[in-house]
Every structure is written in C-alpha cells, then in structure tokens.
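Ligand-bound model needed. adenosine-5'-diphosphate.
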Amino acid sequence: MYAEVIVDIAHSQVDRIFEYSCPPDLTAGCRVKVPFGGRIIDGFVLSVKEASVYPPEKVKPIAEVFDELPALQSECFSLMERISSRYKVPKAAALRLFLPSEMRLGKVHEVYRKYAKLSHISVPISKTAKKQQEIVVFLQGIDEYDYTALCNEYGRAAVNSLVEKGAITVEKRQIKRNPVLGNYYEEKPKTLTYMQGNAIKSIENSSKTVHLLHGVTGSGKTEIYLQLIANEIKKGKSAIFLVPEISLTPQMLSQLRARFKGEAAILHSGLSAGEKFDEWWRLRSGEAKIAIGARSAIFAPLENLGAIIIDEEHDTSYLSETAPRYSTVEIAKLRAEYNGCKLILGSATPSVESYLAATEGEYNLITLPERINKRPLPEIIIADMRKEVKRGNPSPFSSALREELDATLKCGNQAIIFLNRRGYSQKVICRDCGYVAKCENCDVSLTYHSEEDCLKCHYCGAKYRMLPACPDCGGVHIRYSGTGTQRVVAELTSLFPQARIIRMDNDTVSGKDGHYKILKKFASKEADILVGTQMIAKGHDFPAVTLVGILDADMSLQFSDYRSGERTFQLITQVSGRSGRADDKGKVVLQTYCPENYILRYAVNYDYTGFFNNEIQIRKATLFPPYSLICRVMVTGEDDKKTLEALKSVYFEIEELRKAQPKRFIFLNKMHSPVKKIQGKHRYQVLMRLKDDALLQKIYEIAVSNTTPYVLVYVEENPTNLS
Ligand code: ADP
Ligand code: ZN
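Prediction:
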C-alpha cells in the first residue's frame, strides 16, 4: 500500500504531495514520520492507495505511524485545500490549524496506564510458583489492578509469566487530565421567554445557513445558544461555541460546564499543554461533543456538526493576526457548508458587514429588542468634559460621575469604571524641548508605569529606567501626559477612601487564571469598584453593578480609521450593558469632549438601526467596506535596504495590475507603516482600496513571490489595526 503524505514543512517549495509505502492498515488522517531529504520529519497522511505512480525502488517506506485514531478527519483536507488557496499558504500551514501546536511539535503525549485483571481462561499454575499463586488470589478479590504496581509488589517476572500463559490480561488505557475551571454546580435549562422561544424556532425552521441574532445586552442570548446546542446534541450532532476571549468569561464557562458536564470540552490558552491535548482528544474521539473556545476553536476536531455559534460576532479577536490571516466567520461558513449545519452569529452590536447581509436577506435576522423580564436598559447620562475643565475640575471624573459613584457605594452596589488606555500615563514628554521617549527597537513612544517606576514599550515589552532628566536638552520638566488605569485608581482612592477598588488591565493580569481571579473577586463582592480597559467591556454578568462610568468615550473616535464610529458605538453599548442587569435599575455616565457627536447620540438612545442606517450611507458614499476592500501588503525586514527593494518590487507589480484594470482601484500608494519599526524590523506597506475582491488572489500571489529569507511580505484584508 502507498500513502500520499503532506510533509509538515510550511514552505512553498515542498508544498506538494509525496508518496511513501506504508503498512496495509494505515488510514488517511494519521500523523506519521517519514524520511525526507536525509532527515526524519513529521507528515500527514492524505490518502492511502494500492499503487504508486513512481517505480517501487524510488518510494521509501514510512518510518513511524503516530495515531491509532487518525488525528485529522476528512473535513480537514477539504478545508485545507480551500484555506491554502484562499490565503495562499502551504497546505502544511493550513493543516497545522487543525492540531494543537503543542501536540504537533510532539511536546505532549497521551498518558497511558496499564491495568491487569484475571482472564476468563483458567490456566494451571505450578505449586512451586508461589508468587504467581498469590497474584491470582489477590486479583480474584478485585476487578483490576495497576500493572506497574502489581509488578512492584510481586515481581515483574511472575506477572509477565502469568500474562504469557494467558492467565491475566493487561489493558492499556489513556488517562485524562481534566482542567477544572470554577465549580461544577447543577444548572437546569431556563424556561424560555416568548421571544427566546421564537428565536429558536426561527433558527431551527429557517432554510438559511447563517442566522444573525441581534439582541440587546441582557436579552438572554446565552440561553438561546445553550438550548440550540442541547437540541443538536439530542439529535446526535455536535456543536462549536465561540466566544471572543475565553479567559475573560469564566461565568460563561462554569455555566456551560454545569449545563453540559463532560459533553463539553474547553479549548483555551489558559490550559496547560497536557490539558489542551486531552480536551482535544476528547472531542476527536467523540467523547465530548461541544467545543468551547476562542477563535482557534473553530478548527475543533468534531464530526457531524449541527451548529456553530459565534458570540459577540463583531469582536476583532475573530480575525487572526498571524498567517494564515483568516476570518473566523469565513472559516465557520466553510464548515457550515461542509456539514450542512447552522451558523449563528450573535451580538448586541453586529458588525456593519453582518447587519447589511441580514438586511439584504442573505442572513436570517432575529431581533431581541428587550432585556429579559423587560428590565430597562440603563440610562446613559452624558457628561460634557469641556464644561468640567472650564469649571476648573482637573480630575478625570466629572461631577456627575462622582455623585453617581457616591450614591452607588452608599446603596452597597458596585460600579465599573472603564477607560481606553493602560499604564499610569501615556507619553513621556520633555516640556522644555518637546522630546518624547521612544523604544529603541520599535518606533513607538514609551509608557510610564508607576508601580514599577519604569518606562515600557507596549509593542515589544522592553523596559527602560525612568528618566531623571531629558536626554536631549537636560531639562528636568518631564511630563507624563494622559490618564491611565493606575492614575484613575489613585484618584478614586483619594475620593472614596473607604471603597475597595480593583484594577484589571494587561499589567495586572498574569498567569493561567489571572482574569478569573480578578473577576471572581469582583463577582463575590470583595470589591466595590472595578477599573479597567477593553477587557472589562465583554459579556460579563455582574448582578450588583448598577453604575458604569466611561471616562473617555470619544477616545476611539479620534483614530483615523473608517471604523472608528462603529467601534465607538460598539464599545459604549457593550460597556453600558454591564450596568443594571439584575433587579436594580442601572445608570451609565459617559464622559466626552464632543457631546454633539452623532455616534454618541445613537449610542445614548440604544438606537442600533439609526446608527446602522447612517453608517451604511457614509460607507456607500465614501466607498469604504463593505462597499470596497481595504488591502494592506506589509513588507518587513531587518535590513532596511532589502526591505525597501522588496517594497518597490511589490508596488511595481501591483501598479501593473492597476494599469491593466484601473477601475478596480480606488486608491493605491506605498509608504512607511505608521509604526516604522517593531522589534528591530523595518515596516513598509502598500495600501490600497479595491472596488471588490477580484484582484485579491493576484495580490496574495505577489506577496508570496516577493517573500525572501530576509523580507517578509504578507497581505491583510480590512485590517483592524493599521499601526
Ligand atoms: P445576553 O447574552 O443577551 O447579554 P444573558 O444571556 O447574559 O444576556 O441574559 C441576561 C440575564 O437574564 C442573565 O442573568 C440570565 O441568567 C437571565 N435569563 C436569560 N434567559 C432567561 C429566562 N428564560 N428566564 C429567566 N432568566 C433568564
Ligand atoms: Zn519596543
């Protein structure tokens, strides 16, 4: 028999199928080791066949077979083809998406243990074999016993001699490392509200593949997901449930664990390699039927999918920032198509692209306009910070927010203070000469961190000593501009000395369950105020929170990104949604320097459709996505000269495309990237806005053909981060 093998080298030169002779029982999808170019390397068996196209003396045998059950199911190979042609990556790179990386690199393995038990055959044992007699007597009283322990107690020779005679059998079984996340508690399905019931009926009865569940925060979307999943499991199918960043949603996890017990497997970055490996195999073997995780769980090894759910579908974490730079929704659509299953996108603030697809009838749109039990959405009060400055209020808190905080704390309720930035302050500027402290490896300004009294680069993590004086002019009037979480905590402490305050941002969160600990502390009311950045905006359900303060609501409006309006609307809605989720009515204080901004107006009134109609008009008139495609070809390398040469070559080739089809281009230019250097690599870009994706494949090909050992060239579609 012969196997068609893809070698695990993600390089275009070996991106072919190689043939090896193999044992007759080998099946497609197994991982193997094969001789390749004088080495032994890993490979994936694509298929097994009777005859080879090559003469037998040219075909080498497979060196080793890894899996008893093939790691890769047949769907992987179908998706592999589509991913490798869509994103122009080698097949091996596409296949790697389907395996946990630790497992692929052979760093973790199954843990096996052997168990010995008496067989049903009665075998005569000589009277002189005392040990053997003892073993038989011992095993008669019990069902089975650890083989290694048995050998230790009675001697390996005696045990093995019984095994040879057939008196005892030894069975090898895999041991599972079970990740324990939170407590298991009993949780029963809730009685659906009328609206929830209708939503499920609509999804189950619609002939469309993609369903957009647009429900305000607190409208009970989670219960809809859980019951949809339960219904699929009852039908013998499996399900994938994606959340933006799994370590941020411990409540959701414990809820899922409680509801589905062992049927659910959780794949997330906080697990140890061994735990991840075992959870993955539980899915692959069919023991677990529900995969829960962030973006990469879309590749979960499940067969016979009944539903794929993407919660908070607008979230930017669903776009991969490393090659292949896939969109999770796009992969989900491929899997939905392959399995003939449903894809449910849920959000209180759907992306403009998704909502457009829904209004145009491509997706089935389901709207939940009210919170569960008709709880009111929190009232949003706008605080005009220009007036505060005029009044001589230098603190980051408006008088409205201070009053509301005071009232909230007095009632024994909790508050969340949200701000966009991290660190004690933003830039470090010399007031005498205007010098700004920058990172040596990256072309970005450094941020002061008061707890460690140092300057940090948020791109490469480099730390620098605090500056006693300006290195340029020697001046000592160094200023730390801007507000950060640390400064906010310091100000809050002086305003409300009795309040217990905790902070959550990238600096305070570390370790496997850092998020979990902070959130748990807040949930169990061990703190009154939670101060944090973006990571506190997502999906949390804290019943005692009745006040949310948004310190700098318009911060994200100031970015020159066509999506800044959309991002701001999403952020305000999501953060506000944390307030008043239980019986007490919630409030939100939104601080801004431009209260007249229309985005804020729509957000204050929870008017998603108003926002959408306005936004889509602008996108259409100005030809921005979804009415065009923004494409950035990044060219990066350590050698500036070589990188610039590559940039010119890439630009030249794209220029040729434009000459041939000028109408397809709205904009094309080459330039330094906004951040000129990261980790010692120079960064250039060719930026273009295209009418549609007709030339996209050509542009990917240009990127691949200009990549060298010195210069990396890659394509980003509608990038969320243009730094
Ligand atoms: P969303 O995901 O839409 O923001 P959640 O799923 O968090 O909303 O639901 C909001 C709250 O309503 C939660 O506390 C949840 O337990 C509760 N809830 C959801 N569905 C029901 C129901 N059918 N009956 C009673 N309470 C419900
Ligand atoms: Zn740096």
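The chain has a mean pLDDT of 87.
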